[in-house]
Amino acid sequence: MSDKVNQFDDIFLGLAPELGLLRLAQSGLGWKARKGEGLFTVRDADLKRTTWLRAARNFQLRIQLRDGRIVKFEGFQRDDYEKLKDIIRTNYGLQLETKELSVKGWNWGETDFSNGNLVFSVQNKDMFEVPLNEVTNTSLTAKHEVMIELGGPDGEGGAQRDKQRKGDQLVEMRFYIPGSKPQDGEGDEESAANVFYNLIKNEADIGDAAPGDGIVLFSDTLCLTPRGRYDIDMFPTFLRLRGKTTDYKIAYTSIIKLFLLPKPDEVHVLFVIGLDPPLRQGQTRYPFLVFQFVREEETDVTLNLDEETIATKYEGKLEKKYETRTYEVVSTLFKALTGRRVTIPSEFFKSYHNHSAIKCSMKANEGVLYPLDKSFLFIPKPPTFIPHSEIGSVTFSRVGGGAASAARTFDLKFNMKSGVDYSFSSINREEYTNLNEFLQIKKIKTKSMDDEPTGRYVEMVGESDSEEDTGQRKRKSIVQDYGGDDDEGESSPDEDFVADDSESDVAEEFDEN
């Protein structure tokens, strides 16, 4: 007797964004993606329980396996219920149970942890559930408030799946948990929020890793953005960033850029990490982490890796033991573990004082601007990345002759092809020549925009004035615009503000006699 196969089209496997085909036979069931190599199979002997329920993508078939795992298939239509019920009863001898969900719309209820999910229920009916392998971070944002961040499982599969998802995604949830609970064996009480916070860390596997799993730990590292001191605990596929009140888990697949840049003070070195998706603290996003190291500070560390792993997995890019400057060890480890190139200063640019960056301000924030081979980078706050390929032109201000030549600083504006502008001010005038030469080498279009009060004044007075009168009035306008003094003493500021009873105020204002 042939094994009859029943097929359902356009079915999703779990949270995967790809559509596929679900086939059910007496020997088991299998799902295959329409595009790509996605494949999943289950033997009939491994099936324990099946449930039918409403889901975000139409209806869901939830299968509980004998080893405790839960498999979800979504995309069924309402009319598929009877057909699927008969197939499961005939092939596997199981009943297709129906589960009702709470649709009251309440935002208060109870939480439970079941089969790798955080389940929120109202009046004993499930309202929603959060897969704990999607939780990337959790923190206590207030005395009775717990925040969880969602970003997908670690690893290449999770990162690739996040890129394929389209539209809005849920990235953060907050739970308000009042009250307190007694501690086990002690008279003291612990807040219910703290109990829930610790449960999330344990169930979602974002707490402390098992002893011996870490490769190396850098303690009390100064971070300029976000500000604070953190312990950097590095593991084979991710790192932990632990502060006094925060604890972040960052997959190496989310690190897209690395920079190692000497600071102009000749004392410190900056190590910059670019993230996608950015790190979040509440409503603030941090696409770059900026760490600062003392240039001459050295460290002595031994990696928790055997020689065979270093030779095979990391292809000899790491050493078992390091005794050198701290920033060199950190940058070497990040380069090997992430597979990303570390960007260093450009050999085509040196400042007037032979540094790799120029001091400037972005709005009210003081920092340094690094002209790199393929981009500009302003740090520490806010870290601003400007690729050369996206620059339409660069405008210099207050670099021309006249009164502008007396200024000690000039301004710089990047006119991006997207229409966004980045402006930097308070740049030492001595940096203009080297910066302009660098832009010419990189073939970036530049232009100078000097203040021209003379031309504006001519347009204002018209063509009827004599050349002598116009010249004198041009000169007075320049003095007033820049707040300078009139060398010839022809103007009298006090007289300009004397009230007069004459009705012809305009005529007397322009009468030089």
UniProtKB/TrEMBL annotation:
The lineage of its organism: Eukaryota, Fungi, Fungi incertae sedis, Mucoromycota, Mortierellomycotina. Keywords: Chromosome, DNA damage, DNA repair, DNA replication, Nucleus, Transcription, Transcription regulation. This is FACT complex subunit POB3. Residues 460-513 are annotated as: Disordered. It is found in: Nucleus; Chromosome. One of its GO terms (molecular function) is histone binding. Component of the FACT complex, a general chromatin factor that acts to reorganize nucleosomes. The FACT complex is involved in multiple processes that require DNA as a template such as mRNA elongation, DNA replication and DNA repair. During transcription elongation the FACT complex acts as a histone chaperone that both destabilizes and restores nucleosomal structure. Residues 355-449 form the Histone chaperone RTT106/FACT complex subunit SPT16-like middle domain. GO terms for biological process: DNA repair; DNA replication. The gene is POB3. Residues 483-513 have a biased composition (Acidic residues). InterPro entries: PH-like_dom_sf, RTT106/SPT16-like_middle_dom, RTT106/SSRP1_HistChap/FACT, SSRP1-like_PH1, SSRP1/POB3, SSRP1/POB3_N, SSRP1_DD, SSRP1_sf. It holds the Pfam family Rttp106-like_middle. Belongs to the SSRP1 family. PANTHER family: FACT COMPLEX SUBUNIT SSRP1. GO terms for cellular component: FACT complex. Its main location: nucleus. SMART domains: Rtt106. It comes from the Eukaryota. The keyword Transcription applies.
